[in-house]
Amino acid sequence: MKDGSPLIDIVWTSLSQLRVKRLTATALNDIIGRRVIHIDQFIGRRLKRNIYSRQGSLLLSQNCILDHHHINLLHQHGIDLWKEDPQYVTEILTKEAVLEVQAIFEKIRYQSEQLSNQDIQEAIIPKIQQLCINNLSNVILELSKKDNYTYRHCIGVSLISYLIGKWLGLKDEELHNLAIAGLLHDLGKIKIPDSILNKTSSLNADEYAEMKLHTHFGYEMIQNISGMTEQQALVALQHHEREDGSGYPFRIAGVKITLYSKIIAVADVFHTMISERTYKKPIPLYQVFEEIYNSGNKLFDSMVVHCFILNMMIRMVGNHVILTDGQVARIVMLHSDDLINPLVEANGKFYDLRNSEHKILDFVYNQ
Predict the structure, then answer these.
(1) What are phi and psi of 190, to 5 degrees?
(2) What's the mean pLDDT when you consider all of the chain?
(3) How far apart are CA 124 and CA 154, in angstroms?
(4) Please, what is the angle between helix 149-167 and helix 86-110, to 10°?
(5) What SS3 class is residue 67?
C-alpha cells in the first residue's frame, strides 16, 4: 500500500457471525475474550476486507482508512476490531486439534462409536492442513508444550509426517493415510497402565518390556478400524524399529521397514526431543536437527532424514542463530554436503561453519 497503513481485520461480537480461519465458535469466543484491541487504536489503519452489516449491507469497503466516523459507525452496528496474532491463532488451532484427537481416542478406547479411516481423516486432515499453512516455527513451539502431551505428540507426529511425505512427493491419498498413521502410531499405549506411562523416572526391565507391547496392541487395534491399510497398521508395529536393526519389537532393519514407518520414526523422535515434559526440558531445536542428521545413516533412513533436515533448514535461512562464541549470526546459505553447518554472517563477517571453529548452539527466537 502506498501510504503504508497497516492492515487490520474485523470480527463480529455475535459468535454466529464470526469467521476467522475457520475456527470454531468456542475458539473465537476465547480470542474475543483475550485479544480484542481497544477500538480507538485502529484510527488511521486500513481495512483488510469489506465489512457488512448483519443485514448484508456494505458498511465499509476494503482498503478504507479508518477515522472516528467509521469507528462510530462500526460501534453502532456492534462490530469489534481484532488484530490477528499469528502465534495465538496457532495456539487456538492446536487446542482444537487436541480436543478432536482426545475425542477420537476416547471413542476407540471405550468403543462408544465405530470409527473408520474416513471418519478420522475428515476430522483430522483439515486441522493438519490448517496448521501446515501457519508459521512452522510457531507450530513447533506450540506442539512442544507439556500440556496434554499425549495428544500434542500424536498431532505433532502426524503433522511432521505429513510434511515429510509432501516433501517426498507422495500423492494426496498417501499423505492422508500417512498423517492418520502418524496420529495413531502410539494408539496401543491406551492399553498400557498409567503407572508406567506417567512414570517420571527410568522404567525397570519389566516395565520397559510391558511398555514395548504398545507396538503389538496398536497394530491389532488399527487393523480393526474399518478402511485402515496394512501399511498404516504396520506403523504402530514398526515405528521403534531402526535401520541398523537395533530397534524393537523384532529388530528388523533396512528394506523390511515400510516407508510410512521410516517417515514416522523420524517424526516421532523429532517431536519427543523438542517436547517439554514434567521431568525434562525440551532439547534445543538446532541440537535436535544435528542429532537426527548425524544418525541418518545408522538409525534412520538416510533419504527421509536428508529430506526432513533439508526442508526444515531451508525455512531457517535468514533466521538468526547463537554461535559458540556468543555472537548472534544470520544463516545466509546452506551447503548441500553439510546441511547443519551453513554459511552464516555475524557483524559483517562470513563464516563457513563446515570448517570454522564457530558452531551453532541454537536458533534465536522472537527476533
Answers:
(1) -70, -10
(2) 86
(3) 11
(4) 110
(5) coil
Q: Parse the chain into domains and list their residue ranges.
A: 7-84, 87-311, 317-363
pLDDT tens-place string over residues 72-101: 888 788 776 555 556 767 888 899 899 999
Residue 51, beta-bridge partner list? 60
pLDDT in tens, 24-54: 333 333 433 344 444 556 677 777 777 877 6
**159-165 own/partner pairs: CB under 8 Å, 24+ apart:** 159/128, 159/131, 159/132, 160/266, 160/267, 160/270, 160/271, 160/308, 161/260, 161/263, 161/264, 161/267, 162/128, 162/132, 163/132, 163/311, 164/263, 164/266, 164/267, 164/304, 164/307, 164/308, 164/311, 165/263
Q: CB of 44 within 8 A of CB of 90?
A: no
Could you tell me the CATH superfamily of domain 87-311? Hypothetical protein af1432 (1.10.3210.10)
pTM of the full structure: 0.79
Q: Do residues 36 and 13 touch, judged by C-beta distance below 8 A? A: no
Amino acid at 130: Q
CA distance 1 to 60: 18
- CB-based burial label for 165 (10 Å; 0-12, 13-18, 19+): buried
